[in-house]
Amino acid sequence: MLMKLALGGLVLSVGVIGAAGFAVQQTGIAYVEIEDRNEGFRLSLPVPLILADAALAVVPDQDLTEAREELRDLEPLLRGLFVGLDEVPDATFVDVESASEHVRVAKEDGDIIVDVESPNESVYVSVPIEGAERLISTIAGW
Fold first, then answer.
1. Using an 8 Å Cβ cutoff, are 128 and 113 in contact?
2. Per residue in 74-96, pLDDT tens?
3. How far is CA 137 from the centre of its chain?
4. Structure pTM?
5. 30: buried, middle or exposed (CB in 10 Å: 19+, 13-18, 0-12)?
6. Which residue among 60, 62, 91, 127 has the highest number of C-beta atoms inside a 10 angstrom radius?
C-alpha cells in the first residue's frame, strides 16, 4: 500500500512539473541581466511570463484603470507595432556606439532585445514579442 501511495505521489509530481514546464514554454521567458562593475553586482534573472499573467489575475480592476486608459489611446499604434514586428525578419533596429557606450535594440528569434554596454555597467533585456503583446492586451482589455 505504501508503495502505491509513493508511486501515485511520484506520478502526480511528474505531471505537475510537466504541466508547469509546458505553461512556461507556452507563455515564454523574459531575461534580465544587470551588471554593475563598480559595485561588483551581477543579476541574471529569467522571468517566466506566466508569473506576470498570474500577477495580473490578482490585481484589482480599479488599479489598472489608468494603464487601461493610456493603452486604449495607443491601441492602433501598438497593434500596428506588433503586426510589424511579427512580419519583419530578425534585424537590428537601433545600434548606437559612442567612445564609451554601446546601445542596441533588435529583434532576434521572436524576442525584442535591448543591450546596453558601458565601462561601468551593462544591461541586457530579452522579452518574447508574443508574451509582451499578450500582457499589454490583457492590461488594456482588448
1. no
2. 888 888 998 899 899 999 999 99
3. 14
4. 0.70
5. buried
6. 127
